[in-house]
Amino acid sequence: MPQTGSTPPIRPSAAVVVVVALALALFSLSTVETLPVGLLPLIAEDLGVSRTEAGRLVTGYGLVVAVASVPLTHLVRRIPRRALLAWLLVLFVAANLVSAAAPGYWVLLAARITVALTHSVFWSIVAATATGLFSPEVRGRVVAGLFSGLSLANVVGVPAGTWLGQQTDWRVPFLVMSAFGFLALLAVVTLLPSTTGEESHATAGTEPSRRRFLVLMAANALVICGVFAGYTYITVFLTEVTGFSQAAVAPLLLASGVAGVAGTALAGAVVDRRPRGTMVLTVALLAATMFGLYAFGGSTVPTVCLVALLGFSIASMTTALQNRILRVAPGSTEIASAVGSAVFNVGIAGGSFVGGLLLSTGSGVRGAVLVGGLLGACAVAVLLAEPWAARHEATRAAAPEPAREPAI
Length: 408
Known about the structure:
Order of helices and strands: HHHHHHHHHHHHHH
Shape: globular
């Protein structure tokens, strides 16, 4: 049930609509983030730039999110959430309209940077805002419902946006995402209570621990770096190692995305009862999947199953990670979420770099997948050390301070 008391009353049905609207906004943001990947040749040709320059529309976006998440979230921490979310969605709608009408590359890049700045803050506050409308006991299910927008962006948003841009014009999908953002804006303005970030139970960790949070972030960096060392070059792996045709890659990635939706739902169903266990299990599953691709990537059927399992594991791990952040955040869960988002994006960039380095040095894409599995295994080891770190933290907190000698 929606939480009352510190959170202004909101009807259960209204709370559900707000979560759906925020999930729609996440769907739109996540689709826009990687949409230029599918439309890259069309954008490059229309704007008269190279494909490398067009590719910077995606890499630049990720760098902005990684750098801006924490400082921007800290800067806006006292703004009422309804007003803040409304302005963020206004910026999102306007920036996508500019993207659709951009006369040249630099205008499009500026619009992308604006969306990335919006993304930096929106991602940091959305989970605490949504879960604050419900009792803490169902926090995991709310996060899963919210993150369904992220999963659907991979399954439906980017493929459909790419197809629509190819059939009409690359600008049309940005118009559609702008319209979705406007629908989310209407729901937020109409239904979300006007609360500050400090008035909800969800803006403080239920089990705050600085050491547990640091352990979580270390594991986050390791596993995401590992996964994207291989996943960035999954097309190369599927065609060169397994022997699939280029035409088979898209259906395989679609199956991976559908499995991701299932992973989000399943993680949401169990993470409230076993928050730490779910996190450890999903990271272990990612490591095992990368090792499996290394060992069995030359065989067709195992690879199909492992690619689907990879999508399932990434989505379930992301849901478990956000739930864990909301539990162990040592201060504001919104700042903690911003740190998590920044670390996640740094992990993606680092993994892509490591994978590319391995490809260029002759280790090949199988070597990148193997390194991904090893980094995932290191992440599991880090997570298993969390109880020790927490005990050490508790021991230090309980130790009496040494008596100070009187000043002479």
